[in-house]
Design brief:
The chain is of the alpha+beta class. Helices cover 29% and strands 20% of the residues. It folds into two domains: 1-29; 37-83, no CATH class. A hairpin with a 4-residue loop joins strand 2 and strand 3.
């Protein structure tokens, strides 16, 4: 591949990333698709967020378990998914 083609490809990638960053910066809210507790990742990373549709509780900071009727924002703290 010619050097000018490589530079043009990198420029297009950088422009796309800049546009995505601008879009995120201008956002006023985010929508997470609700999932059941059993659908959460098997190996979550600390800080992950999810919307859980079947939480057994809705108390801030409570450890989430499935099987309930509450829809909550879940945060993975490194040990448990907790209500946020």
């Amino acid at each position: 591949m010619r050097a000018d083609a490589i530079v043009n490809n990198q420029l297009m990638i950088a422009q796309g990333i800049a546009q995505l960053a601008h879009h995120i910066e201008q956002s006023t809210g985010y929508q997470l698709t609700p999932v059941t507790f059993n659908e959460l990742p098997l190996a979550p990373l600390v800080g992950m967020l999810a919307c859980v549709s079947d939480s057994s509780l809705a108390t801030w900071g409570g450890v989430i378990a499935g099987g309930g009727t509450n829809t909550v924002l879940a945060f993975y703290d490194g040990t448990n998914w907790v209500v946020k």
